[in-house]
Amino acid sequence: MSWLSRLTPRGPGSRSSRNVAPSSPCTADPETCLMVFENHWRQVSWVLEQRDSSSSSDDLTAVRNHTDQMLCLLAEERPGECEGPGNVPPVGPILDLVVSENVLERVVQWHLRRGLDPDSQGALLKLFEMLIGQSQQPLLQHKAVLQPLLGLLGACAEPQLGCPPSLENSLVLLLNQICVSMARAPAVLELLFRTVPAQQGPTNLLIFSLLVPFIHRDGAIGQQARDALLLVMATSASNQNVACYIAENSYFCPVLATGLSALYSSLPRKIEVRGDDWHALRREDWMGVSSLVLFMNSLEFCNAVIQVSHPLVRSQLVDYVHNGFLVPVMGPALHKSSVDEMIASTAYLDLFLRSITETALLKTFLRFILMHRHDNDTILDTLLTRISSNSRLCMVSL
Q1: Where does the record place the region Disordered (predicted)?
Q2: DSSP character for 374?
Q3: Largest pairwise CA distance in the chain
Q4: Which of the residues 218, 253, 334, 359 has an alpha carbon 20 to 30 A from that of 301?
């Protein structure tokens, strides 16, 4: 599917700049960059070490400005040279300092202690997105980077703070970058699964939980969330622990499948028929109908998830599609009393069947048509009966 081809992780150099942080003040040799970083860090750490918990706005501005410069330097730093064949490149001196001094954890915790206002929350989200997306070194393998990142995301998941609507784009963009990094280095998935904020519980994949509410969202934010979730699915296809979490401890499958029901309810109940020979919805017929485009995006996503996910997730999702969408929604929709509504629902069912490529999902739709009974008749019997009825209904049923 075209969906999967879009998800090929890109290298750092191919990523377009979003201007989320100022340009690095230093493009000199590593020693000079380290000296500049250390100077910024001394000024930040002085503020962080003050015992007065009521820090001033000047302190906040200073910390944010110096942190911006520090993380730009970290993002631009390249790993050291390999000393032998097959050796892992050593971390750069700036990253080594970040790890040894626990820089990011101390900065994030300082923000959390003083109260994370939306401006600071948004700035931190954008800084981490820049850092992960543009870094020349693999950062998420280091607990000193991963732990504060998850601490920030944990704060975004808390009911008291949450993520304001104005910051949702920044949050999803950061989550998407994390999933892209995870796809490049699958070992990160296990780290994400095991390294979680204490308040989130031992089995919570926080990245995943934050993405699920955006599954059916319209626009770029929904597409980024679905792309990120699909990367999680593909990366975890052979990970039994993560698959069990998704199937047993998350709302992913019910939200995805039953969300189709909500989206279907917003579809037009009458289709403009161009003539008695009209019998099916073509792409040019529905691309201008926003509600149908949104539904088809979610159905295509279901198809893609089933294509790449672990068998445990695949089986559960297929069951939810059957029991949470087809039976309670499509069944009654195909038996409306209005001819126009019957034509629309039958045309939608035909479109869905033609759009599905995965065998497991196609079998579920066919099982619904062949075996599900509505008022003692199977869906197939109903469709066959209509072939001899009203001409337009006959054509679309055929």
Answers
A1: 1-25
A2: E
A3: 84
A4: 334
